[in-house]
């Protein structure tokens, strides 16, 4: 049987969460990541019949019954994942209509999946309906995006347009825009449902005064979505108090659409 730690997805997740911590996006135990795995890629390196324990999820997810997820643990520090992956990460299989998660590997200290597992699984379900190649949900606390949510209108169109105007790459990277939720209590099914609802029209969802969620086909896509939006938010905060003498106009953004073959969210450009 192959070594689980040699799986490319395992290597990439460890590298990614380490980088997220280094960026300052995941202080202490802040942030969480989940990756949808294929049974075939696990079968060669894991006994899929050996269940260490079953963990109640507290929600239903019939669409994902029997699916496998690599997920970060609750209360775990991203800075420690590279040193003790089997303690800070887990591989689970959803059963009983998603109401139970069978632990197949990891969480060796008795831990469990992230407290935001509901938001992850509900978002996975929505994005898979829209894109069968979807695989990753990522949550973190980028400083500038969080700060921006304190001083900028939370209107999704206006929030997105401000980010698009900060640097040319934004509309190329996230032409579907950024959706925004007002402050809600985290770690609940309610915020999970609300986030999943927002995921129907965008791969980025800002939790005002808290952080951001990203969904994508792989870890690089999710990281890149957040990284680009975060840089744009940083630029905005640096100039928000100054008179703006120049900007990227809607006419300019239409030129970017034509040049790079992207299409901005319907009705969000003039």
Question: Top keywords for this entry?
Answer:
single chain, 270 residues, alpha+beta, L-fuculose-1-phosphate Aldolase, nine-stranded mixed sheet, 11 helices
Tertiary shape: elongated
In terms of structural class, how would the helical and strand content be classed?
alpha+beta
Total tally of structural domains: 2
- Report helical residue fraction: 40-55%
Question: Can you describe this structure?
Answer:
- The chain has 270 residues and is of the alpha+beta class.
- The chain folds into two domains: 1-115, Class II aldolase/adducin N-terminal domain (L-fuculose-1-phosphate Aldolase); 116-270, 3-Layer(aba) Sandwich (L-fuculose-1-phosphate Aldolase).
- Helix content is 40%, strand content 18%.
- The chain has a nine-stranded mixed sheet, sandwiched between helices.
- Helix 5 (117-130) packs parallel to helix 9 (189-198) and helix 7 crosses helix 10.
- It is elongated and about 65 Å long.
- The chain starts with 7 loop residues before the first helix and ends in a 10-residue tail after the last helix.
